[in-house]
Amino acid sequence: MRRSAAKSRGDKSRTDSVPANAASVQPVETVDIVPGRLTESTWTSMLSQEEGEEVVVDIIAELMEGVMDRCYQVYLQRQLIPFSVWWAQSNLVETLECLLLRRDEGDDPEHELFWQEDQEPQPCAIDCWAEGSVPVLHAAQG
Residue 34 CA to chain centroid, in angstroms? Predict the structure, then answer.
C-alpha cells in the first residue's frame, strides 16, 4: 500500500487547501557573524554607521588642518617684529665688538708668580750620535 492511499480524507483535503505560493515562502535565515551576538544585519548597520563616522572624521581633520595653518601664520606674524629686532641687535653688537677691541688689562706681574721670568735652563748632555760629537784628532805629518 502506498502512503498516499493510507492518508485519510481529512489529511488530503488539508494539503489541497494550502495555496501554491505558500510553499515558496521560506523563513528568513539570520546569518550570525559572531554566533549568538552579532547578526549580518547588525554588522551591515554598524558598517554604514562607521562609514558615516569616517566622513565626519575627514571633514573635522580638514577643518583642523586649516585652523592650525592659520594659527601658525598668526603666530609667525606676531613673532616677526620681536625676532627681527633681536637679530638686528645681536648682529650690531657683534659687529661693534669686532671693531672696538677692548684692552685686556691682564694680571699684575709683581703679585702673580706665574708672570715672573723663568731662569735659563741647563744645557743638555751631548748625545754620542749627534753630528760633531766625536772629536777628530789631526795627526801631524812628519
Answer: 38
CA distance 38 to 30: 10
Q: Of 22, 42, 23, 24, give the one whose Cα is nearest residue 32.
A: 42
Nearest to 114 by CA among 103, 106, 122: 106
pLDDT higher than threshold 60 for residue 77 = yes
Q: What is the DSSP string of 44-77?
A: HHHHHHHHHHHHHHHHHHHHHHHHHHHHHHHHHH
Are 42 and 52 spatial neighbours (Cβ–Cβ below 8 Å)? no
Residue 133: pLDDT over 50: yes
Lowest mean pLDDT of 7-11, 27-31, 65-69, 92-96, name the range: 7-11
- 142 vs 139: CA distance, rounded Å: 9
Distance CA 37, CA 30 (A): 12
pTM: 0.37
* CA 12 centroid distance within chain: 80
What is the biggest distance separating any 2 CA atoms in the chain, rounded to whole angstroms?
A: 174
Grid coordinates representing 15 are: 494539503
Q: Which amino acid is at 55?
A: V
